[in-house]
Structure formats: structure tokens, C-alpha cells
Design brief:
This protein has 16 helices and 20 strands. By secondary structure, the chain is α+β, with helices and mostly antiparallel strands.
């Protein structure tokens, strides 16, 4: 049997995504690994795996972590300005996070699981893989001590720092240890975007080093396998298989202050891993759709929205349909009551789904018709955090009792020509029939057009927000969380030049 290595690549706090993947790989798919290897903050995940935690336990540790508790400002050093040892320190991890995660160093050192935690010995300029039997809290902190952000760690007289500028994933060590299959979970961005400013420049260098080194390692493996297929010895002397799950993770490497965003990233990892396993033909048992991170009681948020515009019957294109609808005076008005039944679930799951009620008003369909079933996906993306959508799916019946489906989408992009407000206000809409008396009405698209909200309607929408929670403080907290979510996702699209992902 091939020897399988779990490769947890570095990526700052984006490695919360890895934890979601581990929930699926370890618990739902029952995958087993002969060894593990990690770089940078991914060493935190490796430590929990080596200790024997389940994938769900690892994921829950990240879901429940409070980002404000993770990092302390290195206050004594700030007065030194350009000569400060670091901006932040990792003392909070030692004092709060590691104990909350129940890391047990004796269990890690005595574990039967083979693993290497990579640190860089700056004194000797050597990449040093630390085996589980030699692991300590100091080495774990050193593994994530990213220069300038965190101070180096002194161990036995030597200076240790994060190994990520030397390697993002120590593939050489895994192969030297006999691994034939490398199961890589990759979270460092490969979008190739350069951002101005100290933070943007720093993480641009970070990505250049990490992604460049990783691509070189993959190229060496490809060359090795090609040589073996030609009957030549190859660099590694045996076939090496790389199984890679990678994603653009909507979380900044360090600057994140939202528990809700971190929990959502964990759940993105869960969804990505389930899709990855299904595509690869890896059987898995069904897992829970949502794992609550907090109290059982649910917080409900309600608000209303009004959209109006024109649709052209017989049209299939949005702009042409809207123009035809104006010429024919075929108006479409949506009066929507939106209900988020569980704010925790809404914020933590990437679908950000809510229920819709209300009416669809169109003279060609019988006037004002009640919505029978409606869902809203609010500020979601399909793996590209720079593009968000607000999606409406509505079912109702026309005056003859024939089912009609209405779908609408607001498309938010960082390449907007019309401006943020216009994109947030504009929904591209189609109407279709799903059946009925086919002698009179054939299923398919029957109309298309554009509906919009006005400034007055947007003000009314904000004023309509209501929160069901037991106390005034709980209602205020819920409203704050919802506002942070809303404006944070708009930041992801329209304020990326300041910071590519909102810190909240």
C-alpha cells in the first residue's frame, strides 16, 4: 500500500479552512494517513491531529475561537518604531488559545502518529522539521512566528522563526520519509494580485515565496514521474502522487477580528471537502449541514425590501426585456418580507440563506400574487471572494393557477462600471413556467427584465430591520453582527485595495 502523508500547508489564519476539510476527510470519509507535515499556523492543526483529536474537534476549535483573543499587540516594542522586534506577539495563544483547544504536550510527544512540524533555525539558516516526540509549546509558537509580525523564539540559544519563507509545504521531507501520496490542503492565494502598502507588499512577498516554491516542488514531482514512465530513474526513484485541495479563502492571513467570518471559513472547508470527495469518488457518510458554535437559542432577523421595474414577455435577455417592458408598460413589483430564522446559521454557513415571503405584482400574471415559496442567498460567492451575488428564488401561481418561477440576481464585482450602489440596487430577473396546461403554456422562460430598489426604498429597508432576541443587549449585538457581515462583504468587493479581505 502507498504511504500517505497529510500535507497541511501554511497560510496564516486561513488554515481555519483546513480544519473544515479535516472534519470531512477524517470523520466523514474516514481517511487515514501514515504521517503528517505542517508549516506555519497549519502546525496548530497538525498538533491537534497528532494528539488524536477528531476532524470535528479540530474544526470546532476554530469555529469557537475568538479572534480578538488570539493576538496581542507587542506594546513594549512599539516605542522603538522601526527597530521594534515585532508588531504583535503570540502570548495570547500560549495563555488562552492553546489551553482552550486542550493541547496536551505529553500526549503529542507520546503519540504514535508520525509527524513533522517545520520551523526555521535562523541561527544556523536551516529548515528544521521537528518530530512529534520532540515537540514543545516553544516550537509550536516558533512555527507561526512570522517575521515583523511576531518576535522570534529563542530555543537552546538559537533563534527560530516561521518556516514559511523557506517552504510552504515541506514536500521534500515527506518524500524522504517514504510518502508516495501527498494529500495537500492549500490555502495561500494564487490570484496573483499585488497590493500597495506595507501589509499588501508583505503578503505579496509571502505569496511569491510560498507559491513559487510549491510550484517548483510540483514541477520536480512531474519531472520525476515522467522520467519513470520513460524507464529512467527519476529524482525520487518512485512515482509520487499529489492529491490537492486548494481554495481562495476569504479571510486575511492575520488581520481578522470576526468569529463569524472564521466560522464561515471553517464551513467553507467542509463544503469544499465534501464536493472534492464526491468528485474523486471517495465515499463518505453524510455529515451535519450545520454545527452550532454557540447557544441553542435562535436569533431571528427580519426586514423588508421592495424592487420594481419592467419585464418583457417573450424576451430572454435582461436589458432587452427591460426596454420592451417599458415600451409595453409591463411593470413588475416585488414586495418582499425577508426572514433570517437563525442568525448564527445564516452567518456561519457560506450559503447565507434566508426565507422570502410577500407578493409578486404583474398585470400580465394576474396582478398581485402571493409568494408560495421563496429563498434568498445574501452576498454569496462561488469561490471568488471578489464577486458577490444576492440571489432570489421565488415560486408563485398566476391567475390561472399555473406555477411560475422567478429568479433574480444582483451581481457585485470589483470591476464595476456603474458603481457600488447601482449594483446593490439592481436585480436581473427572469420568469419561467414549470408546467401547467402545456396546450396553452409551454414550460420555459416567459419573460426577462430588470428590477431595482430606489434610495427611498433602501432607507425603508434599513428602517424595517427587526431582531427577535430576549434582551436589548442581545438585539443590539445581533444587529451589530448582521451589519458587520453586510458591510464586510461589501468591503471584500469594493474596498479590496485597502485590504483584500475585510478584517471583520
Amino acid at each position: 500500500m502507498p504511504k500517505r502523508s497529510l500535507m497541511l500547508a501554511g497560510g496564516g489564519v486561513k488554515v481555519a479552512f483546513q480544519a473544515g476539510v479535516l472534519q470531512v476527510w477524517l470523520d466523514e470519509a474516514g481517511l487515514e494517513f501514515d504521517r503528517g507535515d505542517a508549516v506555519s499556523a497549519a502546525c496548530f492543526n497538525l498538533a491537534m491531529w497528532v494528539q488524536g483529536m477528531s476532524g470535528t474537534e479540530i474544526a470546532d476549535n476554530w469555529r469557537n475561537a475568538q479572534p480578538f483573543s488570539e493576538i496581542d499587540v507587542n506594546a513594549p516594542q512599539l516605542a522603538r518604531l522601526l527597530y521594534a522586534a515585532s508588531i504583535l506577539d503570540l502570548d495570547a495563544f500560549r495563555q488562552k488559545i492553546f489551553p482552550a483547544w486542550k493541547l496536551d504536550w505529553s500526549r503529542i510527544r507520546s503519540s504514535a502518529r508520525e509527524a513533522t512540524f517545520n520551523v526555521y533555525n535562523f541561527s544556523k539558516h536551516e529548515l528544521r522539521p521537528i518530530h512529534a516526540a520532540d515537540m514543545t509549546e516553544d516550537f509550536l509558537v516558533a512555527s507561526a512566528s512570522l517575521p515583523m509580525w511576531f518576535p522570534p523564539v529563542k530555543i537552546a540559544g538559537d533563534t527560530y522563526i516561521d518556516a514559511v519563507f523557506n517552504t510552504g509545504s515541506n514536500i521534500d521531507e515527506a518524500i524522504r520519509s517514504g510518502a508516495d501520496e501527498l494529500w495537500v490542503i492549500w490555502t495561500t492565494s494564487q490570484r496573483g494580485e499585488w497590493f500597495d502598502g506595507f501589509v499588501g507588499n508583505f503578503f505579496g512577498i509571502f505569496e511569491a515565496t510560498v507559491v513559487g516554491g510549491y510550484k517548483n516542488a510540483l514541477a520536480r514531482i512531474a519531472a520525476n514521474n515522467a522520467a519513470l514512465q520513460r524507464g529512467e530513474p527519476g529524482e525520487f526513484g518512485r512515482m509520487i502522487t499529489v492529491k490537492e485541495l486548494k481554495a481562495e479563502v476569504p479571510l486575511h492571513y492575520l488581520l481578522n477580528f470576526s468569529r463569524d467570518r472564521a466560522a464561515e471559513v471553517v464551513n467553507r472547508g467542509v463544503e469544499a471537502a465534501r464536493g472534492w470527495c464526491d468528485a474523486a469518488g471517495i465515499q463518505r457518510r453524510p455529515g451535519p449541514v450545520y454545527i452550532p458554535a454557540g447557544p441553542v437559542s435562535k436569533t431571528v432577523v427580519r426586514f423588508s425590501e421592495m424592487l420594481n421595474g419592467f419585464v418583457g414577455f417573450g424576451a430572454t435577455e435582461f436589458t432587452a426585456g427591460s426596454e420592451q417592458g417599458q415600451a409595453d408598460s409591463t411593470a413588475l413589483v416585488l414586495h418582499l418580507d425577508i426572514c433570517i430564522e437563525d442568525l448564527d446559521e445564516f452567518l456561519d454557513l457560506p450559503e447565507h440563506r434566508a426565507k422570502l415571503q410577500g407578493t409578486v405584482e404583474c398585470d400580465r400574471l394576474g396582478g398581485k400574487r402571493p409568494i408560495e415559496l421563496g429563498t434568498l442567498q445574501f452576498l454569496v460567492d462561488s469561490g471568488d471572494p471578489t464577486r458577490k451575488q444576492i440571489n432570489y428564488e421565488i415560486s408563485f401561481q398566476d391567475e390561472r393557477g399555473v406555477a411560475v418561477q422567478l429568479t433574480a440576481s444582483k451581481n457585485l464585482t470589483d470591476q464595476s462600471q456603474s458603481g457600488a450602489w447601482q449594483e446593490v440596487a439592481t436585480a436581473f430577473t427572469k420568469l419561467s413556467r414549470s408546467g401547467g396546461d402545456e396546450s396553452q403554456t409551454q414550460p420555459g422562460i416567459i419573460a426577462a427584465g430588470i428590477v431595482r430598489s430606489s434610495v427611498l426604498h433602501d432607507i425603508e429597508q434599513l428602517a424595517s430591520i427587526r431582531v427577535d432576541a430576549p434582551t436589548v443587549a442581545a438585539r443590539a449585538h445581533a444587529l451589530t453582527r448582521f451589519g458587520v457581515f453586510y458591510f464586510g462583504r461589501l468591503w471584500d468587493v469594493y474596498a479590496r485595495r485597502l485590504l483584500p479581505v475585510a478584517p471583520f
